[in-house]
Amino acid sequence: MYKCKYFTIEELVSPNVYDAKGDRCWRWFNPIALKGLDKLREKFGPITINNYSTGQQRKFSGFHLQGEFNRSEFSGHRQWGAFDLKPHRLTAEEMRIELLGHEPTENGILPSIEGFEEITELEYGISWVHVRFCSNIDGVLVYSPN
Ligand SMILES: [Zn+2]
């Protein structure tokens, strides 16, 4: 079983999920997603996902239960495969530009990201990096949530 090198399980699941299942949550994540997060951390430096375990506000930036946070029924956040990242050393837009070569301005599917082929979804035009792993597409779906 793969567990992240750089993230605790509380950083990846909501407080209710952690309270109910604790470290058993690791088993429900696809290891491709967990390894992808570690690779992003190695390239971009410290990244905040959830930070409630240190008394801060972010609770729903990884997996959460239906009804805990207002998102689409089909959100990757409810399928153990999407994360909202706040990199410390650069802005979200700068991180997307590093990954994609530019900040997208329209929805579509871009070629896979060299070195990060497991990333299959990125949202643009937002102040965090929404990244999803494991969707069954060839490339990276980019779209604006607005
Ligand atoms: Zn998201």
Could you explain how this protein is built, in words?
- This protein is 21% helix and 17% strand.
- 32% of the residues are buried.
- The protein has helices spanning 15-21, 31-44, 92-100; strands at residues 47-48, 82-87, 108-110, 119-123, 129-133, 140-143.
- β4 and β5 (129-133) form a beta hairpin.
- With 146 residues, the protein is of the alpha+beta class.
- It has a six-stranded mixed β-sheet with strand order 1-2-5-4-6-3.
- It has three helices and six strands, in the order ααββαββββ.
- It is globular, with a radius of gyration of 14 Å.
- The protein has a single domain, classed as 2-Layer Sandwich (Muramoyl-pentapeptide Carboxypeptidase, domain 2).
- The mean pLDDT is 96.
- It binds zinc ion.
- Zinc ion binds next to β2.
Could you outline the blueprint of secondary structure elements for this entry?
Layout: H1 15-21, H2 31-44, E1 47-48, E2 82-87, H3 92-100, E3 108-110, E4 119-123, E5 129-133, E6 140-143
Parallel strand pairs: 4-6
Antiparallel strand pairs: 1-2, 2-5, 3-6, 4-5
This protein binds zinc ion (ZN).
